[in-house]
Amino acid sequence: MITVRSPFSGEVIDTLADSSREEVQASVARSRAVQPAWAAMSLRDRAAIILSFHDLLVQRRQEILDLLQREAGKSRRDAMEEVLDVLVTARHYSRDASRLLSSRRVRGVIPLAVSAEIRRIPWGVVGVVAPWNYPLTLTASDAIPALLAGNTVVVKPDDRTSLTALWVRDVMAEAGLPRDVLQVVLGAGDVVGPWLIDEVDYVMFTGSTRVGRIVAAQCGERLIPCSMELGGKNAMIIRADADPERAAEIAVRACFSNAGQLCISMERIYVNVDVHDAFLAAFVRRTRALRLGTQIGWGSDMGSLISEDQVARARRHVDDAVSRGAKVLAGGHARPDIGPWFFEPTILANVTEGMEVCDEETFGPVVAVHPVHSDDEAVRLANDTEYGLNAAVIGRDRRAAQAVARRLRAGTVNVNEGYAAAWGSIRAPMGGMGQSGLGRRHGDEGLLKYTQAQTVATQRVLGLGAPAGWSDERWASTLLAAVTTMKRIGLK
Fold first, then answer.
1. Does the active-site annotation cover 267?
2. Which of 219, 226, 263, 358 is catalytic?
3. Could you give the angle at the alpha carbon of 417 between the alpha carbons of 416 and 423, nearest 5°?
4. 20 to 30 A from 307, CA-CA: which of 120, 159, 214, 277?
């Protein structure tokens, strides 16, 4: 059985039955059986269902906001980010799906004689393995483009946030999604996840780099594609021309949104010495002013960590750093007086190589601030990681900040923002470099990845073989002349 507990209090919210291997297989089999009919439905009708889900989410937002807070321990503000993300995703892909999925013609090998058409074919059944930190976004927003592309979807949520995934399934059905087109299977990730991957045709996984390697290996054994957003040790650069107060405001949101349990949050800040002291004073003041709370509703700035394991990881990173000479400028302690898994937003200084917090992802409200003397030094240090998910550059001179941004090895880089600018720009792709993942969500690729390209080429006249009575040499010379002529007149 799965016991769902509220991070705010540790109390049991619900108990759910684990899915057996046979139930996982049966769920995928049902999805596979209905997939052809779903794909055959007009794209307009599929988009209408997704837009109906959009409208129901708006109408029932208080319900899902309450659930996200109770089940994931979020502040209301962080929960609202998830709702807004799903709304934007639903509208974007419902609008752009026709452009992306429509067949298109390209020039054949011989103009007029050969035509070629590119079609987009759904993979079949997509498995979405979703984490606990953004359970609405990483269930609904990953499922929506897959569904619009004509796939059916089976979601395996983290067992700590299963109720949100079940809510998405039920509201999708209320919006008109046919039975079995979107299903949810439940259970421990290291048990049910591999069972699901054994059955589906495509995998969308969000989680740690360690588990991502395991998932990729399993997909490789089956020769099925996967897309992954994995870990990060994201860096923010604050240039010499930055406004310290404005930079501090951005940094607080970038580091402590969702209690730091955000793949694209900042865990390293490199501050030019010219503004270091002023920035740090503002950053510490704003961080200490954050309100931690357990109330359902508005009023707190930061919620709880998801579990005791996450608290232990944050505590271990802070204690290890302090034991090796780091200094705590704000926070640094668990807060069981507020709730069982609360941890203060924490700022560290004097963090050096060899400390666990220097290289390992904390995935909690802990950030290290480092002084630097130049943009070159900041870029070198920011890029000194195996990860490459998200980054940020803060400065008054936008062009100069953009120039620095282009030197960073990260899938997304925000200028004068921490993460929301890149994440919210849904028309642009989002994903990681290095050990931070494979593939992209958002942008055209966020939908096209759920399809295979099929080329249908039609020979209209003649053929590509030599005409009767022609030698191979004569025919080859003729084809060569045709190809060179095409170059000369500008045909690709």
1. no
2. 263
3. 135
4. 214
